Amino acid sequence: MVCDICKEGDVVVELTQVEGAEVRHLHLCERCAAERGVETTLAAAKPQIGEFLQAVHQQVHVGLEDTGKCSFCGGTLRDFRASGRLGCAHCYEAFEKSMRELLRRVHGNSRHVGRRYEPPNASEMERAGTVAELRERLRRAIDSEQFELAATLRDQLKGVE
Amino acid sequence: MLDLSLLPNGGVQWLDASGDNSDIVLSSRVRFARNIEGYAFTGRARDGERLRVLAQVRDAIPGLPGASDGVLLRVDEIASADRLLLHERHLVSRELAGLDPQQPVRSGAAVYLTQQSAVMINEEDHLRLQALRSGFAISDAFAEVSRVDESLGGRVPYAYHREFGYLTACPTNTGTGLRASVLIHLPGLVLTKEIAKVLAGLQQIGITYRGLYGEGSEVVGNFFQVSNQTTLGRSEEELLDALVRVVRHLIEREEESRRVLLRDAGYIIEDKLWRAYGTLRFARSLSFDEAMNLLSGVRLAVGLKLIPSLSVYTLNKLLIFSQSAHLAYAEGRALTENEANLARARYVRQTLSDESER
Fold first, then answer.
1. Among A114, A137, B48, B308, which one has the highest count of C-beta atoms within 10 angstroms of its own C-beta?
2. Which residues have a Cβ under 8 Å from the Cβ of B300 and sit 6 or more positions away?
3. Cα distance between residue B257 and residue B45, in whole Å
4. What is the ipTM of this complex?
5. Minimal Cα–Cα distance from B122 to chain A, Å?
6. How far is CA A160 from the centre of its chain?
7. Cβ-based burial of B9 (10 A; exposed 0-12, middle 13-18, buried ≥19)
8. Which residues of A touch B55 (CB under 8 A)?
């Protein structure tokens, strides 16, 4: 049997989706299952950090694609293997394939289904920046006893806040 | 020396035993791991980066819930005895307090405390938002942390990935970044030797347990910290639901084993627990572990209504204030281990005697 999605790979998992009254069966190959964050092996469902670091170890040795460095922090998978911690948020993209595999091993899944996050928009950030700057200037004005300046800054701050 | 009276409620409101099932569940805690976009994670960040993280959070603080009584403590600027004190109060993690000789305190390490919640800054992740509640009150703690999270996340940009969710230094926290835990006292299950079976079952449903002080700590005094193991692939609500169900089950099993103990070995148990009380009431020297184990017995006796004059609140206070850094704080000087054992016995004796005279 071949995969319902790519029509190429061998089926390793049958995914049953229930949406309302509708039940759908999907037959997926290893790769397409991975892309959907579906766990395909029972053994891997046990979230054990030891096992999972061992997996990193193996991948580093086998030399899969994700060798090289993270362009943001300069971290490597080897560093991660030594410390158990990633260098920065960009490492997740730099080593995306390995990370997806590891997350599946640890959590039984690699797809976040919890809260969605929208970063604060630029104008709000800018306002926050202005507030921070004004507050800092106000602090300095008070420290140096420039009370007239402090009063002006306080009014400005009130205006922005 | 750090003035603990300046902290909102001394940071130990949760000791008051006001929550549900507080004779069995000491406290409920929910924490979110978050990182700020644009900086390396704490372990790899340079000093300057960590200080900028701190500055960015400090600027966001005035807009957070509960900011009117909030206190920002620079953990990196206080003495090691005071850092231990904060850790004993469960206000900062071992890592943030820099208590391991191999991992001294980092520049920029800080904690922001309000009456309702805390934010650790430059922990393993840039931000660890948490709320601690008395008794079995996970959803209450979750609601509080969510408020702080929404507010803070609207002021500083979090590191977030469409597929993986919130990005954390350790992949065991990726996704929701949520860890919910309860500190639960299970002496009945330990005495009836049911505990191993019960705990083994937990692992299979994505729930894990640790000792009193969290990761890497040992189980002492029959206190278990039970929490969700996985953080990804399930929503926050699903993760919390699973834990709540497990904790309810644990409470039932514990109550059941207490009934069995009283029924099958009533006088033996009663004798054992009164002896524990007697030792605490009159001993002249107590190590921490001994005190914890005896307090566990007395806590069970109070739960079984064998010692009616003693309150759960007093027992909770004894747990926190009989720790080494707290004894040293009360004495106003550093104590050797022997001195601490003497001071502990004195403190416990005094507290129990005050309580029995009331």
1. A114
2. B185, B187, B188, B258, B273
3. 50
4. 0.85
5. 13
6. 33
7. middle
8. 132
Among the listed residues B291, B287, B266, the one whose alpha carbon sits nearest the alpha carbon of residue B339: B287
Dist. CA B42–CA B169, nearest whole Å = 8
Asked if B165 and A87 come within 8 Å (Cβ–Cβ), the reply is no
Across the interface, whether the CB atoms of B159 and A89 are under 8 A apart is answered: yes
| The two three-digit tokens of residue B284, written as one number | 């002249």
* Residue B172, number of CB atoms within 10 A of its CB: 21
Distance of CA A69 to the CA centre of its chain: 17
Nearest to B184 by CA among B215, B155, B219: B219
Question: For residue B127, what are its two tokens?
Answer: 């931000």
A86 and A75 in contact (C-beta within 8 Å)? yes
pTM, full prediction = 0.78
Q: How far, CA to CA in Å, does A72 sit from each of B38, B316, B341? A: 9, 47, 51
Q: What is the pLDDT of residues A51-80, one digit of tens each?
A: 566 655 555 444 444 568 888 888 999 999
Lowest mean pLDDT among A107-116, B219-228, B299-308: B219-228
- Residue in chain B lying closest to A128 (CA): B155
Q: How far apart are CA A28 and CA A137, in angstroms?
A: 60
CA nearest B178: which of B153, B205, B149?
B149
Alpha helices for chain B (secondary structure H): 47-60, 80-88, 94-97, 138-153, 187-191, 195-203, 236-282, 288-303, 312-321, 324-331, 337-357
Distance CA B68, CA A107 (A): 39
Minimal Cβ distance to B169: which of A85, A113, A124: A85
What six digits make up the tokens of B99?
Answer: 């208590």
Chains A, B: CB pairs < 8 Å? 129
- The angle subtended at Cα A38 by Cα A36 and Cα A44, nearest 5°, is 140
The tens digit of pLDDT for each residue in B295-328 reads: 999 999 999 989 888 999 999 999 999 999 999 9
The tokens for A80 are: 């991660």
Chain A residues touching residue B207 (CB < 8 angstroms): none
With an 8 Å Cβ cutoff, is A158 touching chain B? no
Distance (Å) from the C-alpha of residue A26 to the closest C-alpha of chain B? Answer: 19
Q: What is the Cα–Cα distance from B202 to B180, expressed in whole angstroms? A: 15
A157, A138 Cβ separation under 8 angstroms = yes
- Reduced to 3 states (helix: H, G, I; strand: E, B; else coil), residue B107 is coil
